[in-house]
Amino acid sequence: MPYETRLLRRETVAEGTMAFYFERPRDFALQAGQNGLVSLLDARDFDGYGPTRTFTFASAPHEPELMIATRMRDTAFKRTLKSAPLGLRVGLDGPNGVMTLHEDASRAAVFIAGGVGVTPFRSMACHAAHARLPHRIWLFYSNRRPEDAAFIGELRELEKANPNYRFVPTMVEMDKSALPWSGETGVIGRPLLERHLQGARSPVFYLAGPPGMVIGMQTMLQGMGVSLDDVRDEEFYGY
Questions:
Q1: Residue 131 CB: number of other CB atoms within 10 A?
Q2: Which of 21, 164, 200, 227 lies in disulfide reach of 108, CB 3.0 to 4.6 Å?
Q3: CB 170 within 8 A of CB 188
C-alpha cells in the first residue's frame, strides 16, 4: 500500500450518511474529483466484501484533511469505520480517476449528482471557489428529502464565494419529509436543466450517482443532442 494514514474524526452529514476525515500524507497529490482505494489495516470485523473499498474524496485539494462520505450500511467495513477508536490505521492507494474539471474555461461545467454521488462535486466546487477558477459551474443535486442531502448547506453557501457557481438542489419525496422546502422538486429532467442552463456555453456534463440514475441521465442528454464525448460519469454502488 503506497500510503498509510489514520482516522482523525467522523461526523454525520445527513440522515444515514457519515463523513470520515483522515490525516493527509505529505505527498498525496490529489486533484479535485479523484478517488482512491481505502483499506482497513487492522480490521477485526470481516465479511465477504473484504477490507478495501474505492471512495471518491469529497475534500478539496487545498483542505488539510482527506475526507470521504458514505451512506452507512451494515457491512463490516462501515461498522469498523463508524465504531473503531480514532487513530485507526488506514491504507491509501491513489489518487486515481479522471473525474476532474476540464481545462477549457470557456466551456461551462454541469454537475449532476444523485445522493452521495455529490462527493466529487463537493471537492470540485470547493476547489473552484478557493482557486477562483473562471469556469461557469452548475450543480444539480437530487435527493429524496432535505434530510438525506449531504453538504447541502455548504454547497448553497458556495454561491456567495463563487459568482460563477450555481446550485440547484431538488427533492423527489417531499411528502416524506418533516422539513420545509421552497426549492425545486421532482427528478432532474430536461425541463429542469433547460430552465436553469440559460447561457451555459458548450457545457461538459459530469454525472455521479446510482447506476440507474447515471444511465438515465446519459440517455436523457443524448436525447438533448449532447455528445457522449462531452459526458463524464462515475457510478456509486452503495456498498
A1: 14
A2: 200
A3: yes
What pTM did the predictor assign? 0.94
Provide the grid cell at 22: 483522515
Q: Which residues face 185 on adjacent strands?
A: 171
pLDDT at 239: 46
Query: Can you give the length of the chain in residues?
Result: 239
CB 208 within 8 A of CB 117: yes
Residues 6+ apart with CB under 8 A from 136: 108, 109, 164, 165, 199, 200, 201
- d(CA 134, CA 163) in angstroms, rounded, equals 9
Closest alpha carbon to 88 in 56, 63, 51:
51
144-200 pLDDT, tens per residue? 999 999 999 999 999 999 999 999 999 999 999 999 999 999 999 999 999 999 889
Question: Going by C-beta distance under 8 Å and a sequence separation of 6 or more, which residues neighbour residue 35?
Answer: 54, 55, 56, 57, 94, 95, 96, 97, 99, 120, 234
